[in-house]
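Workshop exercise sheet. Pairs work together: one partner reads the sequence aloud, the other fills in the structure field after running the prediction. Swap roles for the next sheet.
Pair: D.N. / O.F.
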Amino acid sequence: MNQHPPVFKKWLISIRPFALPASTMPVIFGTLLAVVYGGYTFRPGLFLLALAGMVILHSAANLLSDVHDFNKGLDREPTPVSGGVVRGYITTRQAKRASILLFIAGAITGFILTWFSGIWLLVIGIGGLFVGVFYTTEKRMALKYNGLGDFAVFLNFGILGSLGSWYVQAQTLSWIPVVWTIPMATLVIAILHANNWRDIQSDKKGEIRTVASSLGDRKSMLYYGFLIFGPFIMVLIFTLIPKFLLPHLPAMPLTFLITLLALPVAIKLWKIARRRHNPVHPMEFIILDGATSRLNLQFGILCTLALLLNLFLHGFIQ
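Structure field:
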């Protein structure tokens, strides 16, 4: 009896859809920030194209990462959040071909967006494409294998995604989508770190240097704590400090304090991280990256709601 899922589901699993919110939320946030906060006209067609482009490029990067990790003897044991290569649903050759096609499709999408938006989007897009392609490649050049994976996802699935989507709507650059996306981008790092923390031993055997393998188990726990709690502190800083101490700087609307509703989820993840050697459920630390991605999604949704709530309150007051 064939235990494999249908072909469509095989490929859906292969692009690891649970991780896609990490890339799509900055696009949604940056777009809404340009329209609601910046006051620029909403361009729905370009928004949808930017969202599709980010999904395509993220999927391409996931597939390529799986290929290189598998070929290097890493991630050979399937987990609930593994892709199709590790599970044996698709071959590394199929995954590599698919990633190339997706990178080409993503590049074409970027050129179309540049045509309608401006040349600076091409610069942002080339930067993102470079990070995506070289995230996992030959060991000497791979960002992931040389301690730069955290910085890479911070850029691609945080800063560049938000800035690029702002630019698509506004056709001008701004530091606001860069700074205000840092809390969300920090949680994207937390997803990757949870994965690398789990894989410290296998990465060391494969001579792969990640931030987690460099820090070791104990310091990785402290780093993870910073990554999941830091965004809440950043929101407090970005909302309260400019408002009360540095009035010449734009302050995040106070509605962003709604993100504190996600704090109990972060506390729950912290408890899982602390009891990693004696878990309540055998898989809870193994799938910590997937659980962290849900925190990132909830935090991103709350940031989006904060912008909409601020718009509503301003309209109500006026």
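Discussion prompt: The mean pLDDT is 85. What would you look at next?
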